[in-house]
Amino acid sequence: MTETEARTARLAWVKDDDPRWDADRERIFATVPEGVFRAEARTPGERLSSDWWRVEDGGRVVGYGWLDDVWGDAEILLAVEEAARGTGAGAFALARLEEEAAARGLNYVLNVVRDTHPDRTAVTEWFLAHGFTGTEDGRLRKRVGDRARDIGQHQAGRPGTSKAELPDQGHQARYAVERERAAARPRTDVEHPGGSDLGPGAEESGGYVDQEQHRF
């Protein structure tokens, strides 16, 4: 077992049933370089939208994964604290987010690396190396609906090897309501030059992506 595999073997993926802005999020997002997300003041205890998970290493939170499936596929976000980057924590979170999306019967996970990201090229290459492909509108997309395909690091002994479980009936009912509400929302063809200035946890935004530019 390699050192990276040994480290990721002890990581835990923990659902945050009541996601709120707290000290752990403040600590981790403070280490994210400027330009990755919109700098936005958050109030301690502020309720955050959509679904969040914590990545824990020995009980310490070292990262977060975020997923919004309102638009039919899954827009995802992940953040890992500076000290844990390069240890496999990011790939662990990505693989788990793909499993969550596949378990819900979704077809794709999507991510956007903003033009203002200081390491845009390197991060884009990281996603490409994990099976994503670029689209004409700048999104990165990966198919996860076909379980016969490689999802994340689905090789033996690596994160993401567990069988995906379907969400409970309560969650499925909520997803159905959200999709119906999204379908009924009036849409506009007006574009938003310069991209979105939405930050992590922005209401129904997909984190830092512009929902008007990412309909599917």
UniProtKB/TrEMBL annotation:
SUPFAM superfamilies (alphabetical): Acyl-CoA N-acyltransferases (Nat)
UniProt-recorded name of the protein: N-acetylglutamate synthase, GNAT family
Biased composition (Basic and acidic residues): 176-194
Lineage, top ranks: Bacteria, Bacillati, Actinomycetota, Actinomycetes, Geodermatophilales
Record-annotated N-acetyltransferase domain positions: 4-156
Organism listed in the record: Blastococcus mobilis
Stretches for region Disordered: 151-216
One Gene Ontology MF term: acyltransferase activity, transferring groups other than amino-acyl groups
Alphabetical list of Gene3D superfamilies matching this protein: 3.40.630.30
Listed InterPro entries: Acyl_CoA_acyltransferase, GNAT_dom
Pfam families per the UniProt record, alphabetical: Acetyltransf_1
